[in-house]
Amino acid sequence: MAVRVSIFHQTKYEYDRPVFLSPHLFRLKPAAHSRTPIEAYSLIIKPDTHIIHWQQDPFGNFVARVDFQEPMREMLIEVEIIAHMVPLNPFDFFLDAYAEYFPFTYEAQLKKDLGPYLEVSLPGPQMEQLLQRLDQSKRGTVDFLIMLNQLIYQNISYTVRLQPGVQTSEESLMQALGSCRDSAWLLVQIMRHLGLAARFVSGYSVQLIAENLLPTRSFGLEQDVVALHAWAEVFIPGAGWIGLDATSGLLAGEGHIPLACTANPDSAAPITGTTGISETSFTYINKVKRI
């Protein structure tokens, strides 16, 4: 059963004095390759004294560049999306014959094309130990990916972390704790160390309560919820990019709406830009409603 939903996301920055803002980049528009159909979208930024230019980054993500024309005491960003939540089978794909079993090697041209998604960070002791412990004997590629996703889900406890940026893989492994973006980046790095092209994804996670029979993995939720989220994608020949959500241990489904898919988390931040010196308060609202 398909359901249409309205997503509302508001972010407000309040400053203790008038400040000038540098040009800001907003990555808050669903990516063109979103598997969940997007029927309508709007972005409102206040104050109105700004110029907005839409562009695409090197990865094909939609980016709004906003140039502000005067100082301000408050910046308000509102996103509204109408999405058609059609049930998706996350296993609805085929693999090329040579990629059906892990380990495999990408064909030469494909490996060259995937270069940015194969770059690895220098592994620390924790990462080296994890890679040494992994059973890398030949097995079905899909089974291997599920095992990796479950490995992070079972060993990295989830926490809400408001500090900007992403922890290193070593920090996440040492603390056994991380936000969704920390777990996603850890999974990306593990897959790259194993020779699998992987990228970081920032987007919305929509979870609907089970009464509508959608396979949205509601985990006992008492109401429908939406939040900014992060997960990983891995490129497997024949299937293309496959989404892996290490926070839930599941494959990405219709509730995962990508905003930015990049080789590095720094390039996927929903909002980037600098502000004049001030004390800043930050509030946000996320709502989802069935329509």
From TrEMBL:
Residues 172-248 form the Transglutaminase-like domain. Signal peptide: none annotated. InterPro entries: Bac_transglu_N (IPR013589), Papain-like_cys_pep_sf (IPR038765), Transglutaminase-like (IPR002931). SMART domains: TGc. This is Transglutaminase.
